Amino acid sequence: MYLTDEEKRMLHGDEGVVRQKCMQYLVAQCEASGAERLIDLDGTGDFHTPATAMAKSFEFSLEELKELAESGAKFKIPTFANKAPMPGPQPFHGWETCGMHPYDDPERNIKARYEEYLSLYRKMGLLATHSCALYLTASYWPSIGQHCTWTESSAVPYCNAVLGARSNLDGNFASCFLGKTAYYGNHITENRRATVLVKSERMIASDLEWDLYGFVTGELCGISVPCLTGTAKPMTTAFMRLNSAMNTGGAITMYHIPGSTPEAPTIEAAFQGHAPKDVVLIGTAELRRAYDTLNYLPAENVDFVSLGCPHYNLVDLWRLSLLLEGKTCKTCVWIMTSPWLYDIAKNQGFLKIFEDAGANLMSATCPAAMGGVPDGVKTIAVDSAKQAYYITGCYPDLENPLHVCYGSMEDCIEAALTGKWRGEWR
Length: 426
Ligand code: F3S
Known about the structure:
Blueprint: H1 5-11, H2 17-33, E1 38-40, E2 45-47, H3 62-70, E3 79-81, H4 106-111, H5 115-123, H6 155-162, H7 173-178, E4 180-182, E5 196-200, H8 207-221, E6 226-228, H9 236-249, H10 267-270, E7 278-282, H11 284-294, E8 304-307, H12 314-324, E9 332-337, H13 339-348, H14 350-357, E10 360-363, H15 367-370, E11 379-382, H16 385-394, E12 403-406, H17 409-418
Parallel strand pairs: 2-3, 5-6, 5-7, 8-9, 8-11, 9-10, 11-12
Antiparallel strand pairs: 1-4
The structure holds FE3-S4 cluster.
């Protein structure tokens, strides 16, 4: 592979051990992806802390990081923190009342924040958004054609399809620190070309339809770039649902919606003048099948409602506050958002409404990442395909599997207020 003189110097260790380990990682990334060179990033990045989201053998010690931060080194591009430090991300807010051990333990709350690492990252310029939906609070977006390194199922397609910037699902310390990444995948113009035309039998408009449509599109298209037709104009919640569900049913990091996403003013533009390799039709039957799949062993009595996957945006929180105002929940309720939106929800009065209703607003984490559900829970209700799918994999008791009810935000709140699941296919 081709390396510039500066890159060779770093690889040989002439610029210190951390830069050398970062270059080793990026060279390995090129080898794994087939990239022949690195490119300089001119967009933004995010990665999971406290580790570096790099292969274990290339990571460095706290002492090495300390030396680096104290030398005045900074991330080369604007860099954001993904969820709370992993593994087992500790909620930043709402941990005391979450009802799940050990997350409600004050000692864990201090230790699992990894402040010794985070303070050094912040010194290097890390912007501690701590959200899987960093784009909601980053308040700083790349634009068309800018090269980035992001992570997360809803975020990477947001970068590619919605903003027209370019990222693979590979956010990591090395790329953010050196401002470089392997030149592969979505960084290359022809790889962004749609290859599958997806037609929808019914207008995709509600949040639930976007979620199911995304899940089925992922199942049918795998890792291809689909061109989606037959949908309403998506707003932020619709994009978030679509993106996270496509990366649950499949692994789609780039797509087009002609007339809505910036690289596809028309269907022809989405295909860059080529004919589709495949055409798939998604009808009511396919959506219904996905709905039944995601309702995994549903049960009538619900004891836990989990909302906010991906992390709720401000309008989602507002809509939820309207449903909960003046009401009392019978079940445990978790609502996930980012720490910064938590503060806005507090200022807007939503937090008080949630607290009065007995619902727990939490930030920086999610049940799947925490690896389970509150102690004693048998049935969970969710409004997200991704959470419905992931949470079953986190539940250790195979003899008594977790029951999952999947439906709209309204269905979930009805379950929270009555303790009964009344959601149904509509
Ligand atoms: Fe975010 Fe967890 Fe869902 S990381 S996208 S809330 S599974």
